[in-house]
Each structure stands twice: as C-alpha cells, then as structure tokens.
Specification:
Blueprint (H helix, E strand, L loop, with lengths): L1 H4 L22 H17 L6 H43 L4 H18 L3 H5 L23 H13 L7 E4 L12 E5 L2 E5 L1
Antiparallel strand pairs: 1-3, 2-3
C-alpha cells in the first residue's frame, strides 16, 4: 500500500520516486540558459547618449549644412559669372552664325586662360568688349535680347574651348593692334586675331 501511494503515474508508466519523474527533474542546463538570457538582456540594453555625443551629432549636421551652403554659393557665383560672358556673346555676335558665336566665346576663354581671371572679370575689363564700352555711342547692353538669342549664346559658351585667337573686330574695322597680329581668320562679320 505504501508503495502504491508513492508512485507517480504518467503516460510513460509508474515511477517510484517523484524526483525520477521526467517532468519533475531539475535541469542545470535550463538554469544556465536563463542566466545567458539575462546577460543578453543586459548587453542589449541601449545606453542614453551623453551630452557630448548629442552635441557632436548636432555639430556634424551644422557643419554639413554649412558645407552645402558654401557649395551652393560658389556654384551660384560661377553661374552668374558665366551669365555675364553668355550675355557678352549674345550682344557681340547674336547676328552671327553659331560658329561665329563659338569663336567669340573661345576668345573670352582664351583670355581667361591667359590672365587667370574669371569670365566676368575678363569681359568687364574696361575697353575690351564693345558691348560694355561706356564710350560706345549706343551701348549694346541697352538692347533687349530675346530668349532665343540668350539660349543660343549659352550653347555657344558651352561648346567653346580656349582657342588660338585672343582678339576680334568687325571686318570693316582696322584697329592698330591688328597690324601686329600673328595670324587672322574671318568668320562671318568678324575677323579673329592672334596677338
């Protein structure tokens, strides 16, 4: 009778000692797993960033925005400088062929390369291009350019490369400096010179 009272029954049969029951056994491995889980939880816990980390993150954003602003500024400055040169090509050669406009733009770029100055500085140098010459009896800059003229001049400016020729004038003009030219070439109404 005593034996029966201490037996534990299960679907796998009777066990004399409750500690022998498969579901009652103490598993050391389970305890280790729980400790590992606890350690993992401690390791995964995200720490709050320090004030220094937060300040550095903000500083990086501010520095990045500053660099972007400077880039936009310099790009805008370069674009405005090019716009002055494009207007010069349009004023000086809008009545000429595309080849003639490219040739004028090439003169500007050749002078830029020689002097190391920007497009705007080159074309606005006193008495160099008649459209900006204050002594011209009817300055070309007073004439309103059409959008088509400006766009054609823009394409000519993009296509132009610094060439051999550094000066030009109308074919019916005979400036003193043309006498010392090394070579010349006529394109449309303009004669281009290498000085």
């Amino acid at each position: 009778m005593l034996l029966e009272s201490t037996q534990v029954y299960s679907d796998r049969g009777p066990y004399l000692n409750p500690s022998d029951h498969p579901y009652e056994q103490y598993d050391d491995e389970d305890e280790d797993d729980e400790e590992d889980d606890f350690d993992a939880i401690k390791c995964d816990k995200t720490q709050e960033p320090s004030y220094i980390d937060q300040a550095w993150a903000v500083a990086r954003v501010v520095i990045g925005m500053g660099i972007m602003a400077l880039a936009v500024f310099f790009m805008a400055s370069a674009a405005s400088a090019d716009e002055t040169a494009i207007l010069t090509v349009a004023y000086e050669a809008s009545s000429q062929s595309f080849e003639g406009q490219v040739a004028v733009a090439s003169v500007i770029k050749a002078r830029m390369e020689r002097s190391g100055k920007s497009a705007k500085e080159t074309v606005l140098k006193p008495y160099q291009f008649s459209c900006w010459n204050p002594k011209t009896h009817q300055p070309a800059q007073k004439r309103k350019l059409s959008q088509k003229e400006i766009e054609t001049a823009r394409q000519a400016w993009k296509a132009a490369r610094p060439g051999l020729y550094t000066h030009y004038c109308r074919h019916d003009c005979h400036p003193k400096w043309a006498k010392t030219a090394k070579r010349s070439k006529r394109i449309g109404d303009h004669v281009f010179y290498q000085l």
